From TrEMBL:
Pfam families: Vinculin (PF01044). GO terms for molecular function: actin filament binding. It comes from Tachuris rubrigastra. It comes from the Eukaryota. Keywords: Cytoplasm. GO terms for biological process: cell adhesion; Rho protein signal transduction. The keyword Cytoplasm applies. SUPFAM superfamilies: alpha-catenin/vinculin-like (SSF47220). This is Alpha-catulin. One of its GO terms (cellular component) is cytoplasm. The lineage of its organism: Eukaryota, Metazoa, Chordata, Craniata, Vertebrata.
C-alpha cells in the first residue's frame, strides 16, 4: 500500500509535462507489482481470519465433546447437574459460532446441512437432560441405558457433520455422494435433449439412454412401494414405457439429422424433442402427485397421535404387554413416514429441500426406537416421574417432526408450481382485537435473516436456563412449596417465549410475546414476595442476603414490565422491543437459577421449609388470561411431570431459516 502511494504521489513529480497534463506515475511495472502484492496480502488476511473462525468452532466442539464424556460417566445426580450447567454454557457458545458461520455460508446446500445439524443438537439437548436423569434414577434399567446412548450417539454425529461442513472435508478423505432425485434427473435429461437444437454432436446416444435408465430406475422407488396407490403405480409404469419409446424415436431422427441436415429432418427432430420433454414432464407430475398425496394422507391420518397417547397411558399403567403392542404400531408408523420422506426427496425440487427430507427421514428413523425404549422404561417403572417426563420429551420430538412435515410438503408444492416462497417468518405486530380492542390494525412486519439469527441465539440461552431451573426445582421434596410453584411457572412461560424465537408454540405474534412477558414479570414479583415471607424463617445472618437477592429480582422484573408495556411502532422498533423482552427475561431466569439453589440450601439448613408457607394462587390462573392454554397443557404437565415443555406439544412448525 505504501509503495503504491509513493509511486502515485503527485507532489514527488518535479517536472510536469508541457501540455499541462500531469503524469501520475511513470513506473507502471512497479505499480502493477505492488497492486498484485496488495491483493495477495488482503487474500491472505481473509484466509487467516477464516482459519481462525474454523479453529474457534473446532475448539468449541472439542469442549462440548469433552463435557459430554463427563456427562456419560457421571454417577450422581448432584454431579450431573453441575456438569450439565457447564455443558449448557458450552452449547450456547457453540450455537453462537455455528449460527454466525451458517449465515456466512454462500452454498445453499451447506446452509441446509448446517441448519439440520444445529436443529438436531438443539432438540437433543433436552433429550440428553431427561434421558440422563432417567438413567441416573434407574441405573440397572437396560432400556433407559439404550435410550440415553442413542441421544449421545446422535449428538456426536451432528457435531461431526458440523465440522465436516465447516472444514469442507469428510473423514478418511471420502467424497460425499450427492443423492440423485427424480426431479433433478429429469431436469438434467431435458437440458441435454433440448441442447440438441444447438449442437447435434455434443453428446452420444448412449449417454442419453443411460440418463433415462437412471431416472426410470428411481421411479421403482414409487412402483415398488407398498404405499403407492394402484392408480399412480399404473400411470408411472405407462409413462416410463412411453419415455423409452419417445427416446428411441428421438435417437432415430437425431442420427439421421447428423448425416443429413434437411429442413424436414430438423422439423422432425424438433417434434421428437418436444414429445420427449412433454413425456418427462408428465412423468415428473405423476411422481409428484404420488408422493405428495401419500404425504398428505399420512400426515392427516397421524395428526391425532393416538399411538403416542396409548403408549403414555399403558406405560403409566405398567402394562408391558400393551406397550409391546403399541410399540409395534409405532414401528409400522415409522416405516410409513420414512418411506414418505424418501419419496418426497425425489420430488423436492431443490437441494436444500432434498437435505431437509433426508434430515426428516433420519429423525423418524432415530426417534421411533428412542420412544420405544423410553416407553419400555416407563412400563418397567410406572411410578417414576422422570421416566414419564422422558417419554413425553421424545413424543414431543416426534410430534414436532410431523408438524414440520406439513410445512415441508407445502414448500415442495410451492417449488413444483413455480412459487418459490420466501422463508417463513412470524408476524411481528399484534392481531387486531387480540389483547386490546383499541389496537389499530397494523400490517405484519417480517424480520430479516440477521434479526432472526440474533433472536435465535437469545432464545437458545433462554432454553438452557429453563433446563437449569427445572433441574433445581426437581430437587425439592415438597413440590407444592410456593417458591417451587412460582419457579416452575416462570420456567414454563420462559420456555413458551423460547419457542416464539423459533417461530413455534402458542405465542404467534409479538403482542402475544409482550403480554406473556408482563405475566412472567408479575410471576417474578410474586416469587419475590414469597422470598420475603421465607426470609422470616431463616437465621438473621442469611436473611439480609436473601432479601438483597429478592430486591434484585423485583428490580429486573419491573424493568421487564416497563419494556413489555412500552409502545413500539414500525418494524425496527418492534424488533428492538422483542429483543429487549427476551434479553430481560433471560436476566430474570439467570437470577432465578441463583435463587433456587440458595433457597434449597437455606431450607435444608433450617429444616423448616416444606409446607410451612401458605400456598400461592396457581400461576396457571394468570396463564389463562394470555389465551395460550387452549389445549390445557397444565393437565398434561401434572400427569407426566413436565414443567418446561408444556408449550412444546402444539403448533410446532418447521422453522427456520433454520
Amino acid at each position: 500500500g505504501e509503495t503504491i502511494a509513493k509511486l502515485t504521489d503527485v507532489a514527488s513529480l518535479d517536472h510536469p509535462e508541457s501540455d499541462s497534463h500531469i503524469t501520475i506515475f511513470t513506473d507502471k511495472t512497479g505499480v502493477v507489482k505492488a497492486a498484485r502484492l496488495l491483493l495477495s496480502s488482503v487474500t491472505k488476511v481473509l484466509v487467516l481470519a477464516d482459519k481462525i473462525v474454523i479453529k474457534q468452532i473446532i475448539t468449541s466442539r472439542n469442549k462440548v465433546l469433552a463435557t459430554m464424556e463427563q456427562l456419560e460417566k457421571v454417577s450422581s445426580f448432584q454431579e450431573f447437574v453441575q456438569i450439565f450447567s457447564q455443558f449448557g454454557n458450552e452449547m450456547v457458545e457453540f450455537a453462537h459460532l455455528t449460527g454466525d458461520r451458517q449465515n456466512d455460508l454462500k452454498d445453499e446446500k451447506k446452509k441446509a446441512r448446517m441448519a439440520a445439524s444445529r436443529a438436531v443438537l438443539e432438540k437433543c439437548t433436552m433429550m440428553l437432560l431427561t434421558a440422563s436423569k432417567t438413567c441416573l434414577r434407574h441405573p440397572d434399567c437396560e432400556s433407559a441405558r439404550i435410550n440415553k446412548d442413542g441421544v449421545f450417539h446422535r449428538m456426536r454425529l451432528a457435531l461431526e457433520q458440523v465440522i465436516e461442513i465447516v472444514t469442507d472435508s469428510r473423514p478418511n478423505g471420502e467424497n460425499e455422494m450427492a443423492p440423485i432425485s427424480i426431479y433433478s434427473g429429469i431436469k438434467e435429461f431435458k437440458n441435454k435433449v433440448e441442447g440438441l437444437r444447438e449442437n447435434l454432436y455434443f453428446l452420444s446416444k448412449e449417454n442419453l439412454s443411460t440418463m433415462l435408465e437412471v431416472i426410470l430406475e428411481h421411479t421403482e422407488d414409487f412402483t415398488d412401494s407398498a404405499y403407492t396407490s394402484h392408480e399412480h403405480r399404473e400411470h408411472i409404469l405407462e409413462l416410463s414405457k412411453q419415455a423409452k419409446m419417445e427416446l428411441e424415436q428421438l435417437v432415430s431422427v437425431w442420427m439421421q439429422a447428423q448425416n443429413q441436415k434437411t429442413k424436414d429432418l430438423m422439423e422432425d427432430l424438433e417434434v421428437a424433442i418436444l414429445k420427449t420433454c412433454q413425456c418427462m414432464n408428465e412423468l415428473k407430475r405423476e411422481v409428484h402427485s404420488a408422493a405428495t398425496s401419500l404425504a398428505a394422507d399420512l400426515l392427516k391420518y397421524h395428526t391425532d397421535h393416538m399411538v403416542l397417547k396409548a403408549l403414555k397411558i399403558t406405560g403409566v399403567e405398567g402394562n408391558l404387554e400393551a406397550v409391546a403392542e403399541y410399540t409395534c404400531k409405532l414401528s409400522e408408523q415409522k416405516e410409513q413416514l420414512v418411506e414418505m420422506c424418501r419419496l418426497l426427496r425425489h420430488v423436492s425440487g431443490t437441494e436444500p429441500l432434498e437435505i431437509t427430507c433426508i434430515h426428516a427421514e433420519d429423525t423418524f428413523q432415530v426417534t421411533g426406537p428412542q420412544i420405544i425404549s423410553a416407553a419400555e422404561t416407563l412400563a418397567l417403572h410406572p411410578s417414576s416421574k422422570i421416566a414419564k417426563e422422558n417419554l413425553e420429551v421424545f413424543c414431543e420430538a416426534w410430534e414436532s417432526q410431523l408438524s414440520d412435515m406439513s410445512l415441508l410438503l407445502r414448500e415442495i408444492n410451492d417449488v413444483f408450481e413455480g412459487r418459490r416462497g420466501e422463508k417463513r417468518v412470524y408476524l411481528s405486530l399484534p392481531r387486531p382485537g387480540k389483547h386490546n380492542t383499541n389496537l389499530k390494525a397494523l400490517k405484519p412486519v417480517k424480520l430479516d435473516t440477521e434479526e432472526q439469527a440474533k433472536i435465535a441465539k437469545l432464545g437458545l440461552e433462554l432454553h438452557l436456563l429453563t433446563s437449569d431451573v427445572d433441574s433445581e426445582t426437581e430437587k425439592w421434596e415438597d413440590q407444592e412449596n410456593e417458591i417451587v410453584q412460582h419457579g416452575q411457572g416462570m420456567s414454563s412461560m420462559a420456555y413458551s417465549m423460547y419457542l416464539f424465537t423459533r417461530g413455534e408454540g402458542l405465542l404467534k405474534t409479538t403482542q402475544d410475546l409482550f403480554h406473556q412477558a408482563e405475566i412472567f414479570a408479575t410471576e417474578g414479583t410474586k416469587l419475590a414476595s414469597a422470598l420475603h415471607a421465607f426470609s422470616d424463617q431463616v437465621h438473621e445472618d442469611d436473611k439480609s442476603f436473601l432479601l438483597l437477592e429478592a430486591e434484585k429480582l423485583i428490580s429486573v422484573c419491573k424493568q421487564l414490565q416497563i419494556t413489555a408495556k412500552a409502545s413500539a411502532q414500525g418494524k425496527s422498533a418492534t424488533f428492538t422491543k422483542v429483543d429487549a423482552c427476551i434479553l430481560k427475561t433471560r436476566n430474570v431466569m439467570t437470577l432465578l437459577c441463583q435463587l433456587l439453589p440458595l433457597c434449597f440450601k437455606l431450607l435444608r439448613k433450617n429444616k423448616a421449609g416444606n409446607g410451612c408457607l401458605k400456598p400461592a394462587p396457581p400461576w396457571k390462573e394468570d396463564r389463562i388470561q394470555t389465551g395460550t392454554n387452549a389445549h390445557t397443557p397444565e393437565r398434561r404437565a401434572e400427569t407426566f411431570g413436565i414443567k418446561c415443555l408444556e408449550n412444546h406439544v402444539t403448533n410446532m412448525t418447521f422453522l427456520e431459516s433454520k
